[in-house]
Specification:
The complex is a heterodimer. By secondary structure, chain A is mainly alpha-helical. Chain B has a single domain, classed as AhpD-like (Up-down Bundle), CATH 1.20.1290.10. The chains are: A mainly alpha, B mainly alpha.
Chain lengths: ~190, ~190
């Protein structure tokens, strides 16, 4: 049972977002900007950074929902998403993405863990300042979302199938959707 | 030196904020709604949660900037700055209310991992009078500073050691809050008014 009274039947972060609309708005706009705003990294790549960090933080709701969103951007390629989550170095992704996922993994532990060598590796494979900045902020933001979801002991379904439709909506309609229609940004579909 | 090319002389989070205005907007809006405005927890109490978590994360800029904001809200005397240091070291032995101690205990658990927060931690806060909203906001403030701290440290931002810089930041933010501010002022010694 959740630590506070939230409407029943709402999984993960959806309960606290409904409980507290004033904070939900900036939280969702941040997610929309980081994961779906205009960027040289595809939405699939950014969702994989989110899923990888959430996996490392052992947050079931976040890692399963953002895996489903990444897979939705990748025509349902859950195998690639699983590989990236658990062992990016051997996954079928670019060298740049592998280097960015190392940085994200360091941020998950502590920002101070990110070394000059980590950044040099990303640059060598073509990462820009903005891509490095966004990787650090996506990783940092999921260290927040994960703690928000787990710190309130929210209800989190554990079956991957429970997240399939949610992932489709996250990928196609985004994070602000009907909640703040005046704020809807342009969809970037990376699939 | 920062990991990316940030404008010089901007301390801590201000470098990345100026670098990335589109993410700065929701980040500032989040800080504003969590830390300022009407609430059953005072602004000083909410800033204390931010300061404590930043101290546990060993983020120099965030703990001294928000610690200074706390001290300024309490009056800005040296004794109030010392109180903030005592709170960071061992909040249980300060004169804070039992409710604040219970909320700081929850914040400390969130800093490690959200799953560390137990029913007993929440019961302690409730028996000292904490509401659902206060518990929710404590968890989210603690979680948000696990983000802000990583953002500041993960880009290896400039984090000056001069207490006067943090005094000025504390005075300004205690007065102005977080949104609609100009964060582009350089704090480098060469540019400081004497």
């Amino acid at each position: 049972m959740a630590h506070i009274t939230v409407p029943p039947g709402l999984p993960g972060i959806v309960g606290p977002l409904t409980f507290s609309p004033d904070t939900a708005k900036p939280l969702l706009i941040l997610a929309e900007t980081l994961l779906r705003g205009p960027n040289t990294l595809t939405s699939a790549e950014r969702e994989m950074i989110a899923a990888h960090v959430s996996y490392r933080n052992n947050c079931d709701f976040c890692q399963l929902s953002h895996s489903a969103a990444a897979a939705a951007h990748l025509d349902g390629n859950y195998d690639l998403v699983e590989a990236v989550k658990t062992n990016p170095e051997t996954a079928g992704i670019s060298e740049k993405m592998k280097a960015l996922l190392v940085i994200a993994g360091k941020v998950q532990q502590s920002g101070k863990q990110v070394s000059e060598d980590d950044v040099a590796r990303a640059r060598k494979h073509g990462a820009t300042d903005k891509e490095i900045h966004d990787t650090v902020l996506i990783a940092a933001a999921f260290c927040m979302y994960n703690r928000y979801v787990d710190g309130l002991a929210t209800w989190q379904p554990l079956e991957r199938d429970a997240y399939h439709d949610m992932g489709q909506r996250m990928a196609r309609e985004g994070y602000v959707r009907d909640r703040f229609p005046e704020l809807g940004t342009e969809t970037e579909d990376a699939a | 030196m920062p990991h990316i090319n940030l404008k010089q002389g901007l301390p801590g989070i201000r470098g990345p904020m100026v670098f990335s205005p589109e993410t700065t907007k929701p980040l500032c809006d989040l800080a504003e709604v969590l830390l300022t405005g009407p609430h059953t927890l005072t602004t000083a109490e909410r800033e204390m949660i931010a300061t404590y978590v930043s101290s546990q994360n060993d983020c120099y800029f965030c703990q001294y900037a928000h610690g200074s904001i706390v001290a300024q809200h309490l009056g800005g005397t040296p004794a109030q700055y010392e109180f903030v240091d005592a709170m960071k070291r061992d909040f249980e032995s300060t004169t804070l209310s039992d409710k604040m101690k219970a909320l700081l205990n929850i914040a400390g658990k969130v800093q490690q991992d959200g799953k560390q927060v137990t029913t007993a931690d929440v019961d302690r806060a409730r028996s000292a009078g904490a509401t659902d909203k206060e518990i929710h906001d404590t968890v989210l403030i603690a979680a948000a500073f696990c983000m802000f701290n990583r953002y500041v440290d993960g880009l290896a931002t400039w984090q000056p050691r001069d207490p006067e810089i943090y005094r000025e930041i504390g005075q300004q933010t205690a007065k102005l809050g977080y949104v609609g501010r100009d964060y582009t002022k350089s704090f480098e010694p060469a540019n400081k008014a004497v």
